[in-house]
Amino acid sequence: MTQVGIPRGLFYFYQYPLWKTFFRDLGAEVVTSSSTGRQTIDVGIVHTVDECCLPIKVYFGHIHELIQLRPDYIMAPRLVSIEYRSYICPKFMGIPDMIRASLPDCPPLIDITIDCSRDTRQLWKDIYRVGALFNADRRKVKSAYEHGLQALKSLCVLTRQGYTQHEAIELWENYCLEQAELNSGDLTVGVLGHGYSLYDPAVSLQLIERLRGLGCKAVLLESCPRDAVEQAAAQIPKKMFWTLGRKMLGSALVMDQSADIDGIVYLACFGCGPDSMVGDIVGRKVRHKPFMLVTIDEHSGEGGLVTRLEAFCDMLRRKKVQKLESDLSAYGIHAHCR
Ligand code: SF4
User: Fold this and answer.
1) Which CATH number applies to 3-159?
2) The whole model's pTM is what?
3) Do domains 3-159 and 183-337 have the same CATH topology?
4) Where do the domains of the chain lie?
5) Which CATH code for domain 183-337?
6) Which of 145, 100, 109, 97 is nearest to 125 (CA)?
7) What residues are in contact with ligand 1 under a 6 Å CB criterion?
8) With b meaning 16 or more CB within 10 Å and e meaning fewer, what string describes 148-181?
């Protein structure tokens, strides 16, 4: 049976059910790399340039692991745009070329281009081209892709309930999760970040799990009402053209107005261009809730993160219970209050 490898990084957190279903329906066996570990990060660092952000380094660690498994193909799409007139970080566009340059012994890549800002005919042409690799006729390819889109919808249903994409994928694959842990806690904290860093427990240093352990209910971008997020993001004078950046900004503004949210945490990656801009805008625009920006890289240790999260939660509790603290920064008046 033809084997297709899917690395557990980047688009995996957003599209895994789509491509797993698609390839399975075409008669292929899908193999994935194992969950991210320290070794994944270390190997990824060796095969990327220093300037890459942590998620790209982690992705290369996963590709390297898959190469050892020798699948017939590795799925490495060239993501340009996943919705009309809105774009994904340019690093996604160069992924297949970067893999070929850094890992020459890699099996053939399925480097389908996904650009929803262009004519969908090109996307279908690419999908049929991939289907031909598995000797599938056009009808079978179309039905496999549509089945994959349905699988993706079931993932969205789970993430809307408050599961992280990582947890939703595990549920989708029939693993068991304790449902109670989602809703417990005396604090409610909005948590933002790119899915492939925030929802990968090893990359985020288990930020969401730690918040839950500190008695917080984590509210994620995917569970915010979509229309409200888009309306809020449209308030800034210039449209944010990065899809994920726009969603994070809109969600932050929705959370800022929500009476249920006690504070907001934003996870940024060192070396990420979009994060350096979006994180700063969110920090300036959030006016009614305590806000904390956490920046991580491959050298970050959990000790520093735990200390910051504990201090943040302590401050939220003091503010909530004793009403002793205002929203003003310890540095003085925020730029937006001047
Ligand atoms: S958006 Fe940032 S974290 Fe994501 S791939 Fe681009 S540079 Fe890396």
Assistant:
1) 3.40.50.11890
2) 0.90
3) yes
4) 3-159, 183-337
5) 3.40.50
6) 145
7) 53, 55-56, 89, 91, 194, 269, 272-275
8) beebbeebeebbeebbbbbbbbebbeeeeeeeee
Phi-psi category of 27—alpha, beta or left, where left has phi over 0 and alpha has psi -120 to 50?
left
Question: Which residue, among 291, 286, 289, has the nearest Cα to 268 in the 3D structure?
Answer: 291
**Sequential pLDDT tens for the chain (338 residues):** 899 999 999 999 999 999 999 999 999 999 999 999 999 999 999 999 888 899 999 999 999 999 999 999 999 999 888 888 888 888 888 999 999 999 999 999 999 888 888 878 888 999 999 999 998 999 999 999 999 999 999 999 989 888 888 989 989 987 665 554 566 788 999 999 999 999 999 999 999 999 999 999 999 999 899 999 999 999 888 888 889 999 999 999 999 999 999 999 999 998 898 999 999 999 999 988 999 999 998 887 888 899 999 999 999 998 887 765 565 555 555 544 44
Cβ–Cβ < 8 Å for 100, 111: no
Ligand 1: distance of its center to the CA of 275 in Å? 7
Atom of ligand 1 nearest to the CA of 90: 6
Shortest-distance Cα residue to atom 2 of ligand 1: 272
CB 56 within 8 A of CB 197: no
Distance from the alpha carbon of residue 95 to the mean position of ligand 1, in angstroms: 12
Interval between CA 227 and ligand 1 midpoint (Å): 25
Comparing CA positions, the residue from 210, 209, 199 lying closest to residue 8 is 199
Residue 265 CA to its chain's centroid (Å): 15
The closest residue, in CA terms, to atom 3 on ligand 1 is 272
* DSSP state at residue 52: S
- Distance, CA of 58 to CA of 21 (rounded, Å): 24
Q: How far is the CA of 319 from the centre of ligand 1 (A)?
A: 34
